[in-house]
């Protein structure tokens, strides 16, 4: 029996000290002033801007991720959003005026956005920078200290982040803890104001259970099988190109990557052909030789993907080859797949795309509804009726028509799952709100006393009449 690695006592003490320091910092109030928050946000942007190549090289070392993907999907996004946060602090943080009933106007009720406290961020390996720092800038904007625990499967990035953070950010408020399961376990033993975890559902349950011991609120950004619908009315060549943008990015190792395709049967062969042609254009010298395609993160994940492909009863219409030395894997299209296929059991999280023909869009909707709610549902159609049907009859973290993956580029909308794909939102104001306690405050003047006499004992017929007034309010007819 293999024993779980134990945390070295000195490291356990170091984690405890980090925890104690960020709590002390929070209690001191140093993170509350808006100018402090603004400086930290600008420093975060500056850290990435001045060291963009170092971060890109580290992520390439971990994942083989092309520099363009790192700049466009990770570094650039965090710089832009950190600057937006810095410019939005006054608006987001100001007391919110409310308009109460006339009898309570003199009570001056307001809602005060208040920092929750120290935040624990547990991030994954697939987009290590954006999914570590997306929550960090939100914590900064909310006035909260934070500790980031990056994934052990992205060691080069983790070391780079741990090196730069104390050089740019307040080390008493923001820290990075590197390591693996023992370090994460120790962090989860401690009390936090909020935990944000990105990863899979199995670990998400462990995080949620650990948080429950302290009644700590949790945000879980998980994943699952994000389906794609291609309706009969849509151009299959354009659909193929846009589906593959989402599938090929990071070699399919994306929580919102298209996981499988449900396509009208009379368009299935045309779609498969269009997918193959598109991939030839993407990788003219071959997937395994291309600098535009990431490799699989580890040998264990590589073997898992190969194992799933080996069990499929579908037809490999394109791809299927891989290189265990480089961990490169061809983008693989598998046609003639049925609902019971091995590839349909779990999230693929890799470069395999199963294609399933359906007789009707109702069949596609029924199948999607028979599974856990996905993080994203993609649909390629111009049919207004089908679009409305999907809005009305399905539930997913997001519903995207006629593109894939690019919903992550929109600053003004929340990103998050529902049910098995997670809960809680992130991105700009939505992340700020997640780490903020919206605290009600009011100031009831002495002069209000003649107007609230009826609430005191001894109760009377007259006081009961006032208290019971709402029972007799007129209700409109149906």
Automatic annotation (TrEMBL):
GO terms for molecular function: aldehyde dehydrogenase (NAD+) activity. Pfam families: Aldedh (PF00171). The keyword DNA-binding does not apply. One of its GO terms (biological process) is aldehyde metabolic process. GO terms for cellular component: cytoplasm. Keywords: NAD, Oxidoreductase. The active site is at 221, 255. SUPFAM superfamilies: ALDH-like. The keyword Lipid metabolism does not apply. It comes from the Eukaryota. Residues 15-440 form the Aldehyde dehydrogenase domain. Belongs to the aldehyde dehydrogenase family. This is Aldehyde dehydrogenase. It comes from Schizopora paradoxa.
């Amino acid at each position: 029996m293999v024993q779980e690695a134990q945390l070295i006592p000195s490291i356990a003490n170091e984690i405890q000290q980090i925890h104690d320091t960020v709590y002390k910092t929070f209690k001191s109030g140093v993170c509350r002033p808006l100018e402090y928050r603004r400086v930290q946000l600008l420093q975060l942007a500056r850290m990435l801007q001045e060291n963009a190549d170092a971060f890109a090289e580290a992520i390439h070392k971990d994942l083989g991720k092309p520099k363009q993907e790192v700049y466009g999907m990770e570094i650039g996004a965090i710089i832009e959003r950190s600057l937006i946060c810095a410019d939005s602090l006054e608006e987001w943080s100001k007391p919110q005026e409310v308009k109460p009933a006339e009898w309570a106007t003199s009570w001056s009720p307001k809602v005060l956005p208040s920092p929750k406290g120290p935040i624990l961020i547990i991030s994954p390996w697939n987009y290590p920078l954006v999914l570590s720092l997306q929550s960090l800038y939100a914590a900064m904007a909310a006035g909260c200290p934070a500790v980031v625990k990056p994934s052990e499967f992205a060691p080069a990035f983790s070391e780079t982040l741990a090196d730069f953070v104390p050089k740019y950010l307040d080390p008493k408020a923001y820290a990075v803890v590197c390591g693996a399961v023992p370090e994460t376990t120790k962090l989860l033993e401690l009390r936090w104001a909020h935990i944000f975890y990105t990863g899979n559902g199995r670990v998400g349950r462990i995080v949620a259970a650990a948080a429950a011991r302290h009644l700590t609120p949790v945000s879980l950004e998980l994943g699952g099988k994000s389906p794609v619908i291609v309706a009969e009315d849509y151009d299959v060549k354009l659909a193929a190109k846009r589906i593959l943008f989402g599938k090929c990015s990071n070699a399919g190792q994306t929580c919102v990557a298209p996981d499988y395709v449900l396509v009208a049967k009379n368009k299935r062969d045309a779609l498969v052909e269009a997918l193959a042609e598109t991939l030839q254009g993407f990788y003219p010298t071959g997937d395994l030789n291309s600098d535009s395609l990431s490799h699989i993160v580890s040998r264990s994940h590589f073997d898992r993907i190969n194992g799933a492909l080996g069990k499929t009863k579908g037809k490999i219409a394109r791809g299927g080859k891989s290189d265990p030395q480089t961990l490169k894997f061809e983008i693989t299209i598998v046609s003639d797949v049925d609902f019971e296929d091995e590839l349909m059991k779990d999230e693929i999280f890799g470069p395999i795309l199963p294609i399933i023909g359906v007789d009707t869009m109702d069949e596609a909707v029924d199948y999607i509804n028979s599974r856990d709610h996905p993080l994203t549902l993609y649909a390629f159609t111009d049919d207004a009726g089908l679009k409305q049907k999907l809005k009305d009859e399905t539930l997913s973290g997001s519903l995207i028509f006629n593109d894939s993956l690019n919903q992550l580029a929109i600053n003004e909308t929340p990103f998050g799952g529902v049910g098995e794909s997670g809960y809680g939102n992130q991105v700009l104001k939505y992340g700020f709100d997640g780490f903020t306690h919206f605290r009600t405050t009011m100031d009831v003047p002495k002069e209000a006393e003649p107007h609230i006499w009826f609430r005191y004992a001894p109760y009377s017929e007259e006081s009961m009449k006032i208290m019971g007034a709402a029972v007799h309010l007129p209700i409109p007819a149906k």
